[in-house]
Amino acid sequence: MRGLIAESWLLASGFVVGVGMLADSSVMIALGALLFSTGGFARLWARLALTSVTYERDFSMRRAFVGETVDVQTRLANAKLLPVPWIELREQVPRDLPITGVRVRPSGIPRVSLIQRSTSLSGNEALEWRFTLAPVERGDYRIGPARFRSGDLFGFFEREETVERQDALLVYPQTFELPELGLDSERPFGDRRGGNRIFEDPSRVVGVRDYLPGDPLKRVDWNATARVGRLQSRLYEPSRTLSTVVALNITTMEHSWEGYIPLLLERNISVAASIARHVAEAGEAVGLIANGAFPDSDRPIRLGAGSHPEQLVHILEALATIAPYTTATLASELESRTHPLPVGANVVVVASLMPQDLVATLTRLRGEGHTVHIVKTSDAVWDVALGRNIAVHDVSAFTIALEERSGMHASAVPERLRAAPIMGSAR
After folding, report:
1. Contacts 24+ apart (CB under 8 A), 6-12
2. How far apart are CA 36 and CA 330, in angstroms?
């Protein structure tokens, strides 16, 4: 609308010049020429207003835990001699990410708020602002894009540009010390039966030998058998290393079509992160399996057990971004033949529900030599028979107390994290 008015104003100035020429009035001609030249100058100014204008963000850190604060410094610069008489900046920020030090207003876009600023810039001038992010939920947050609007000194002409670049802030789930969860920090899951035994690692073949009665068929090397003309069995590298695999069941409702309970989901993720952190800091190999997916992906979350320094970072990153959508049942993920569990692995299941198929899977894993522990995160009664060889650690009372202490329980939690199920969010 403003552009239409500006065009009409330019046409009107031309009309004044024409009338002046017909009336042989030098005053009207001069006035029309002045108006026309002023409009042309204003239009050129508006066209150049955002040229060489840059906007940058600098984060004090790109990864943080829930409860930490992140300082963000922004810099708006005009790298030309021509001043910018006025400029309006609108920057998109996640609605669920608390921000202090700047005014935030609704945007009309779901789950997005706006930071809006208005200022002016002299030639070769730069302005800096600071604000603070105080995440209260895990997640992968994106700041941006930013949209600029500027124009000429009179406000007749405008120009808009968008800086599409987004800056990411990854917020890890909240973790607790194991005693806070009611678990023994020295031996949280008791003594591992057979912890000093030597296992054979089937992922590391070191040779072959003649077949012996009792060797399983999956151990037979058929290529070597064909070469030598008699049955050959693979030789595996021995290993004393026992790994811990944290198996996270993100399902919080009995049926997937019922949706999910955000508070229970976040509790499960936090407990899983706490256990993984404890195992990794103890210098032991740890892995992660979850029946959830990364955002915008159907790829299940599966990180093989490892003890390298970056392993915990990878696990926390996966848990930070995990979506509430189930890609499969946890039972099927644990029984995957494509990605078998490490030999003799200590399997720690974190769950608020215990479906019957998962019970059957854990029973089979226990029979195959794995140590199985269940960390129960809900106070609901499980009507299942787990057997004496599968230990259940109920941490629900401890986690509820921690949530109440930190204001993250019942009505104190953000609206979208309250205990009511969110419908249609699981598949």
Report:
1. 6/39, 6/43, 6/156, 6/157, 9/35, 9/39, 9/156, 10/36, 10/39, 10/40, 10/43
2. 73
Ordered DSSP codes for 352-417: S---HHHHHHHHHHHHTT-EEEEEE-S-SPP-----TTSEEEE-HHHHHHHHHHTT-SGGGS-GGG
Residue 184 has which token pair?
Answer: 């023994």
The Cβ of residue 173 has, within 10 Å, a number of other Cβ atoms equal to 23
State how far the alpha carbon of 75 is from the alpha carbons of 38, 69, 121, 200, in Å: 32, 20, 12, 58
Write down the domain spans for the chain: 1-33, 56-172, 178-195+240-417, 200-239
Can you read off the two tokens belonging to residue 251?
């399902």
Is the separation of the CB atoms in 382 and 376 below 8 Å?
yes
CA pair distance 25, 380, nearest whole angstrom: 93
Class of domain 178-195+240-417: alpha beta
Residue 121's DSSP bridge partners are: 84
Question: What are the pLDDT tens digits along the chain (427 aa)?
Answer: 454 555 565 666 666 566 666 676 666 666 666 666 666 677 788 889 999 999 999 999 999 998 899 999 999 999 999 999 999 999 999 999 999 999 999 888 888 999 999 999 999 999 999 999 999 899 999 999 999 999 887 777 788 999 889 999 999 999 999 999 998 877 787 654 444 444 555 656 667 888 877 777 777 888 888 888 888 888 765 554 578 999 999 998 887 777 888 899 999 999 999 999 999 998 889 999 999 877 777 777 899 888 888 999 999 999 999 988 887 899 999 988 777 888 778 999 999 999 999 999 999 998 888 889 999 999 988 888 887 788 899 999 999 998 888 765 443 344 444 444 554 444 3
Separation between Cα atoms, residue 231 and residue 346, nearest integer Å = 33
Q: Is the peptide bond before 145 cis (omega within 30 degrees of 0)?
A: yes
Domain 56-172 falls under CATH 2.60.40.1530: yes
Q: Compute the distance between CA of residue 128 and CA of residue 187 in angstroms, rounded to an integer.
A: 51
**Locate tokens 């069995």: which residue?**
233
Beta-bridge partner residues of 90: 116, 147
Q: Return the amino acid letter for 67.
A: G
What's the pTM?
Answer: 0.76
